[in-house]
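REVIEWER CHECKLIST
Item 1: Sequence provided? yes
Item 2: Single chain? yes
Item 3: Sequence as submitted:
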Amino acid sequence: MRWISSIATVAVLTACATQMTSEGSKVELLTEQQASHCERVKVVTVNQRLGPDKPGNAMKKALNETAAAGANGFYVVTSSTDWAEGASVVGKAMRCK
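Item 4: Structure as written out by the authors:
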């Protein structure tokens, strides 16, 4: 019975994990200097309240959203992690040459 409970717990936690898209994995994290030479496409705001690895999942969501907007770079403006509130990432989706 304990084994089944463990498998169920792992399945629930894994289901909450954010998967990086193939496009999102190609987005480059930019420094402020690099971002200054790129065109801003949009501001991306992501909040991750549930699941394991809240900061990692928030960043994956931000990179996926950046790629979906047609951008190839992401500049992090702010990020925070709080046990009760989760994790958040705010940044700029940038199109760089």
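Item 5: Key structural point noted by reviewer: The radius of gyration is 16 Å.
Item 6: Recommendation: ____
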